[in-house]
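In practice, a research group might receive sequence data for several interacting partners and want a quick structural hypothesis before committing to experiments. The following worked case mirrors that situation: the sequences arrive first, and a predicted assembly follows.
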Amino acid sequence: SQQGEEDPQALSIQEGENATMNCSYKTSINNLQWYRQNSGRGLVHLILIRSNEREKHSGRLRVTLDTSKKSSSLLITASRAADTASYFCATGSNDYKLSFGAGTTVTVRA
Amino acid sequence: ETGVTQTPRHLVMGMTNKKSLKCEQHLGHNAMYWYKQSAKKPLELMFVYSLEERVENNSVPSRFSPECPNSSHLFLHLHTLQPEDSALYLCASSQDLGSLYEQYFGPGTRLTVT
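A structural hypothesis for the assembly, expressed as tokens:
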């Protein structure tokens, strides 16, 4: 069953700007992961944040997690054309499954 | 790339055909997954294997039949499919079974059922 739900569905920004997307979920989790998918390709893991963490950074990526609001955000700073992709959040619980959302499509304009 | 390969990349088949999708991982992982990705929908988990044993069969119609002959290879056998089965089929692997392990995805097979 779908757990994570991304918002917005689509985002268009100018190169150099920041992109922010959000993920909301319904039940308790033990971790949340973000993945990127370039057009027609597989998903690539970006970052994992555990339920006891509030913020995590990886290069130009910043992820926050607010378990009280059941939400997470992914910030991409100083965006580049190569960041054009779909971004998915996936929630993990105590079993082995990851539940993916439908994704946010990000377009970075040159 | 990610260490997970899938063949073929594109497949067009009629509803009466039988075909197979192949996935191979070169990462030494113990868990492998099949997902279905349809436009504007979340990824749907279809099957999960851990150490070559199936641990998940997520209410998938019997016209989809998985096979895992060893921990590096995963197949999805297709027969008498319906047009609504047209989608991108993604294979993934992870070090072990557990949601804390990141999953490594192959590029997918774009399936069109005519």
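Before designing any experiment, note the following. The radius of gyration of chain B is 13 Å. Chain B has a mean pLDDT of 94.
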